[in-house]
Amino acid sequence: MALHKTSLTLSFRGKKLSVPRSVYAPSDDSFLLAGAVKKFARGDVLDLGTGCGIQGIIAAGNAESVTFSDVSPEALECARKNAEKNVSGASCTLHFIETNLFKKIPRGKKFDVIIFNPPYLPTKPCEKVSGAINSAWDGGRNGRKVIAPFLKRFPARLKKGGILLYLNCHLSGTRETLKALKRQGFKVETVAGKRAGNERLSVFRSWK
Length: 208
Fold this sequence. Notes:
By secondary structure, the protein is α/β, with parallel strands linked by helices.
């Protein structure tokens, strides 16, 4: 995954996003997921690991409320600024929470849609980079350092009839992810997919 050396400004689906070098810049995985978000987002949405805010901003077009969350304060501030520029009107309420997964999401709070593009790259200690950007892509030795605990915890945060929109990469163990979802009683549909370099990317829509 390439790191950008300077701040970027990009346009996507009519939205203009500014991304400092300390925040993950949207790439093929982000754009693939955003297509599904545009189609399926509704109600009360959680954009977990929001980065620059691209998913939550797209979701805001159809949602009643969007919670942008990230473990990185730099990313959360970037998402806030981008949302302020791109989400107009009072039809969608925006919230911003700095948190590692669900730790600081209010207890008992549940969502109609949870969006997650996890840090999925298998990463050796020598491959880590300094600064907040590392958390955007460092998945640990097998790519599942964040994915595994997320899959255990997200069901308790979904409303009845809610859905998960999840960006999957084969490098972090597609079979293990599908097993974890189905073991908890979730159905899984692949709603988008593409190859990006050596990565096979797909978007899972999962529900009970």
